[in-house]
Automatic annotation (TrEMBL), chain A:
Organism of derivation: Alcanivorax nanhaiticus
Main location class: membrane
Protein name according to UniProt: NAD(P) transhydrogenase subunit beta
SUPFAM superfamilies, per the entry: DHS-like NAD/FAD-binding domain
Pfam families: PNTB
GO molecular function terms noted in the UniProt entry: NADP binding; proton-translocating NAD(P)+ transhydrogenase activity
Family, as annotated: Belongs to the PNT beta subunit family.
Alphabetized UniProt keyword annotations: Cell inner membrane, Cell membrane, Membrane, NAD, NADP, Translocase, Transmembrane, Transmembrane helix
Catalytic activity: NAD(+) + NADPH + H(+)(in) = NADH + NADP(+) + H(+)(out)
EC number: 7.1.1.1
Transmembrane segments: 6-23, 35-52, 58-77, 115-138, 159-177, 183-203, 235-254
UniProt xrefs under InterPro entries: DHS-like_NAD/FAD-binding_dom (IPR029035), NADH_DH_b (IPR012136), PNTB-like (IPR034300)
Protein's job: The transhydrogenation between NADH and NADP is coupled to respiration and ATP hydrolysis and functions as a proton pump across the membrane.
UniProtKB/TrEMBL annotation, chain B:
EC number: 7.1.1.1
Full protein name: proton-translocating NAD(P)(+) transhydrogenase
Membrane disposition: Multi-pass membrane protein
Protein location: Cell inner membrane
Keywords annotated in UniProt: Cell inner membrane, Cell membrane, Membrane, NAD, NADP, Translocase, Transmembrane, Transmembrane helix
InterPro entries in the record: NADP_transhyd_a_C (IPR024605)
Source organism: Alcanivorax nanhaiticus
Superkingdom, taxonomy of origin: Bacteria
Root EC class: translocase
Coiled coil: none
Catalytic reaction equation(s): NAD(+) + NADPH + H(+)(in) = NADH + NADP(+) + H(+)(out)
Pfam families the UniProt entry points to: PNTB_4TM (PF12769)
Length: 460, 91
């Protein structure tokens, strides 16, 4: 059965509209599930109508591919743990880029890229798609700890990257003049794949949230480029939507870490200023406390803010924290959670981890919402967070983290920091918060401490 | 479709994307990423055409790879997004 191209294009338009309405649904938790289903329906429309395309003459390979891909995708989606979500997203980014890369390659070998625009678009889809594929695989390996999360590189790496990039562009230019040159095409593929590896290897584990968001954007741009190759409006529109989405998330993450994108991609951490002496910061000023004391403090509190960090999720302590919060709420205490944008390992990660532990999303407050309320907060409990609470970011112009947006927990009447020791966080800096007059340190394992506080609350 | 029409779509869609995405609250940023990932699986459209065109072994292999990868993206992306959003919805 063959349908006129106009009807197929109208169906693609419907799919694109469903994607837009679907993303719009994601702006509110209440409408988000429906939004996701609408977007999925859009995908269904686009896929079904494509099967009517006159170029499709055989279905065996399609069926095999859909069955294999569908099974792998479904198993991944069912099995993945919420703490491992960044890895899964990294893989999906890579597969998206890889798919666009494979589609553009197939178009190249079919000889359908026959004018300047479609050849450039093919080259762009191959370049961006292959970079996304290998770059995402490195990001996945780092997050999954298959390879060391530390930045890896060699002298002259930037020069090599520049040569690979410029070489790829020259290769695309050559293909415009001499369409169909397969040697140059494979050279382009190899250069792009190597470039993807070399771009992500030197980026440290702590910066992965930025990298994942950026690769998300790339996968969209690659899809868009594939759309230019095929003259398909659905691909162009959706690809650019995703590209824009990834870019916005990238810039949010950069802002939260007080770093520019160039700095994350090519640079190292800011030069440490005057190294602060840990002894000078902490000596004689750190007060340690016990779970029972904290419980007594909480009993008289009206408002408590919990500040979770990724350490909490690694210890699988979210449920214990929710129990503690429930106990407090039953006593009439107002409880909220302060979520720093980089509290998890990707944008919004901590919110998902807490939602999994059935913390109601109304209690999850982002930085801008919660910061003005710390002055009316009786107790702030810091659990596995460090650098994002460091007041030096606000006060000490010489500090390497100066200017980084932080949670102003030190403005609360009392701050309880649950931590194993006084060791420093990712930034490698001492945290004067621990030595403040209104701070109490509860040393120990995070989950154990939370359970102890809950028990003491229930007994008290 | 001519190039200028394509470019027009591309540029307008980027502006639309920026408008839409800036309204998504930080709480939903992870589902937004997995959802947009699923949507970028729209490459499946191109993958289906490549895989079904029956124009030689190399193209068949590339088409098959493209269909597998894009389908993982679509199915995996939408399912995991749904799983996460269901956690936000309850209560």
């Amino acid at each position: 059965m063959h349908v006129s191209q106009n009807w197929i294009d109208i169906a693609y338009l419907i799919a694109a509209v469903l994607f837009v309405v679907g993303i719009k649904g994601l702006t509110k938790p209440k409408t988000a599930v429906r939004g996701n289903l609408l977007a999925a329906a859009g995908m269904g429309v686009a896929a079904v109508v494509t099967l009517l395309n006159e170029h499709i003459v055989t279905y065996e390979i399609i069926i095999a591919g859909v069955v294999v891909g569908g099974l792998i995708g479904a198993i991944m989606a069912k099995k993945v743990q919420m703490t491992s979500m960044p890895q899964m997203i990294a893989l999906l980014n890579g597969f998206g880029g890889g798919a666009s890369f494979a589609v553009a390659s197939a178009e190249f070998f079919r000889g359908s890229a026959d004018n300047t625009v479609s050849i450039i678009a093919t080259g762009a889809a191959v370049l961006i798609g292959a970079v996304t594929l290998t770059g995402s695989l490195v990001a996945f390996a780092k997050l999954q700890e298959l390879i060391d999360g530390k930045p890896m590189g060699f002298p002259g790496m930037k020069v090599v990257n520049a040569i690979l990039f410029v070489g790829s562009l020259v290769g695309i230019g050559y293909l415009v003049v001499n369409p169909g040159n397969e040697t140059v095409f494979w050279g382009l593929v190899a250069a792009a794949m190597l470039l993807g590896l070399l771009l992500v290897l030197p980026i440290g584990g702590a910066d992965m949230p930025v990298v994942i968001a950026l690769l998300n954007s790339y996968s969209g741009v690659a899809a868009s480029a594939a759309g230019f190759v095929m003259g398909n409006s659905a691909l162009i529109i959706t690809g650019s939507l995703v590209g824009a989405s990834g870019l916005i998330l990238t810039s949010i993450m950069c802002k939260a870490m007080n770093r520019s994108l160039t700095n994350v991609l090519f640079g190292v951490m800011a030069e440490a200023g005057e190294a602060m002496d840990e002894d000078e910061v902490y000596a004689g000023k750190v007060k340690s406390t016990s779970a029972e004391e904290v419980a007594m403090l909480l009993e008289t509190a009206q408002r408590v803010v919990i500040v979770p960090g990724f350490g909490l999720a690694m210890a699988q302590a979210q449920h214990a924290v929710r129990d503690m919060a429930d106990t407090m709420e039953a006593m009439g205490i107002e409880v909220e959670y302060a979520i720093h944008p980089v509290a998890g390992r990707m944008p919004g990660h901590m919110n998902v981890l807490l939602a999994e532990a059935e913390v109601p999303y109304e209690q999850l407050k982002d930085m801008d919402q919660i910061n003005p309320t710390f002055e009316q907060t009786d107790v702030a409990i810091v659990l596995g967070a460090n650098d994002v609470t460091n007041p030096m970011a606000r006060e000490d112009k010489g500090s390497p983290i100066y200017g980084m947006p932080i949670l102003n927990v030190d403005k609360a009447k009392t701050v309880v920091v649950v931590k194993r020791s006084l060791s420093s966080g990712f930034a490698g800096l001492p945290n004067p918060l621990f030595a403040k007059d209104n701070t109490l340190m509860l040393f120990g394992d995070g989950k154990g401490a939370v359970l102890d506080i809950t028990t003491a609350l229930k007994e008290g | 479709m001519d190039f200028v029409a394509q470019l027009t779509l591309f540029v307008l869609a980027i502006f639309l994307g920026v408008e839409l995405i800036t309204k998504v609250p930080p709480t939903l940023h992870t589902p937004l990423m997995s959802g947009s990932n699923a949507i970028s699986g729209i490459t499946v459209v191109g993958a289906l055409i490549a895989a079904g065109s029956d124009s030689g072994l190399l193209i068949n292999v590339l088409g098959f790879a493209a269909v597998v990868l894009a389908t993982i993206n679509v199915i995996g992306g939408f399912m995991v997004t749904n799983r996460m959003l269901a956690m936000f919805k309850r209560k």
